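Following up on my earlier thread - several people asked me to post the actual chain instead of describing it. Fair enough. Here it is, all 349 residues.
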Amino acid sequence: MPAAPHFLVIRRRYLGDIVLLGPVFRNLRQHWPQARITALVEERFAGILTLNPDVDRTIILPAGDPRRWLKLLATLRGGRFTHVFDLDNTDKTALLTRLTGAPFRATVWHEQARLRSLYTAVIHDPPARHEQRHIIDYYLLPLGAAGVPIVTREVRLVPRPADLAAVRNLPAFDFRPSTPRLLVHPGSRSPYRLWPAERFARVIDRVQADLGVRVALVSGPGEKAILDDIRRHLQTAPAVFDSPLSLPQLAALMSLFDVVLCHDSGPMHVAGAVGTPVVALFGSQNATLWRPAGDRHTLLQPPLPCQHCTAPAECVPGDSYRNYCIRNLSEEQVLAALRDHLARPTVRA
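Reply from S.P.:
Thanks for posting it. Predicted structure:
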């Protein structure tokens, strides 16, 4: 085994998945401090890895342009990787893994194994077991085949000084140092995971009026309509960060608040990774698998299976991706969780 191995970790998407790769990178670094660690991800998620101190380089998985694909193939072939951990296990990533020529090539699967002959190690995580533990434990499985001990499950992102300065200089950032701060991120890539806008508005109004807390709203790309809907129902005036933020800037912003209120989403995992407690709103999705990492967070979820369907004509029984169960969460539940967090001592960047 070379003194300084070169690792490639493949996970194309999504934001939360890539944030939760942190323990993979950390355990590799702990076991081989001099190793080179490279990640292969889609371009829209690459920025978040600039905040992970264990990642030396990020390679972009291109879309469309054949010239970029040829460049990627040359990069992988010339990378001299000693180990590849393919955490996607698609036909495409299996072929890319084999193309590297790395002597150790591992993947993990729980539903269907792809092109198994292209790997030197294939780990099966049976669906019943897969659904009963955190996704971090799934990502860590291939490390055992490489002889890497699991010594940490910490998820950590470190905001950069330039990004902290940039968000502090935004016009909406008008907070007094001693004022408690709540950041609300009401977006999600799935409409089934959205808590109603009018309930967000009433919670924001009560937090600002009753608790003396300064509230701010922020959204992701393509989510301006969600912010606008909430704003139409507001009686108070929270700060609004409605100009586009890069992923590193979003992480920096989240680190400057006492608590973040959000859905089960990529930003939920970003907030947790920068050390900010989260009140996370879950619907019918598997909370065991996708809960925010760490013990400083509050996860709210209605009883499952659903007992009071709010949209029987639209929900699909048994499909966790197509149910509006999140609407069964009450404003009082959310307010109680926020009061609890905001009563704790302030620790922020």
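The chain has two domains: 6-145, 161-342. That should answer part of your original question.
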